Each structure stands twice: as structure tokens, then as C-alpha cells.
Amino acid sequence: MNLKKLSLWAAVALACYAVISSPNGSSALVDDMLNSLEHAANSVIVFLDRFVP
Predict the structure, then answer these.
(1) Alpha-carbon gap, residue 23 to 29, rounded angstroms
(2) Could you tell me the pLDDT band of residue 9, with boundaries at 50, 70 and 90?
(3) CA distance 26 to 13
(4) Are the CB atoms for 22 and 14 separated by under 8 Å?
(5) Least confident of 25-29, 34-38, 42-46
(6) What is the rounded CA–CA span in Å between residue 37 and residue 23?
(7) Whole-structure pTM value
(8) 1-9 contacts: CB < 8 A, separation 24 or more?
(9) Rounded Cα–Cα distance for residues 38 and 31 (Å)
(10) DSSP collapsed to 3 states, the chain
(11) Which long-range contacts link 6-9 to residues 24+ away (Cβ below 8 Å)?
């Protein structure tokens, strides 16, 4: 098994462990990540709106 595939499986196993051991913390982390993505997308839209009237 190559290193890339092994590290992918390790990341999946770690994510599953985190969700099982602390579901509230995991959901808060996902919520924060999605809010950050939303903020970034809104910033890009505002930036582009200034160039396109």
C-alpha cells in the first residue's frame, strides 16, 4: 500500500474517531469551517461586484 493511500485511510480513521468521541466538538468544528467558507465566498462576491457594474 503506498503512502498516499495509507495517509488517506489514517485521516479517515482519525475523523471517525473524532466524531465518535466528541460529536458536539466535531459539529462545532464543521460549523466554524462552513462559516469561514461562507465568509470567504461573500468576500469574493463583493470583490468581483466592484469590477462588474
Answers:
(1) 10
(2) very high
(3) 14
(4) no
(5) 25-29
(6) 21
(7) 0.62
(8) none
(9) 10
(10) CCHHHHHHHHHHHHHHHHHHHCHHHHHHHHHHHHHHHHHHHHHHHHHHHCCCC
(11) none
Q: Are 18 and 26 in contact (CB under 8 A)?
A: yes
Q: All 3 cell numbers of residue 27?
A: 459539529
Residues in the chain: 53
Residue 52's Cβ-side half-sphere holds a number of Cα atoms within 13 Å equal to 6
Whole-number Å distance between alpha carbons of 28 and 44:
24
26 and 17 Cβ atoms separated by less than 8 Å: no
Residue 11 C-alpha cell reads as: 485521516
Task: Measure CA 48 to chain center.
Answer: 24
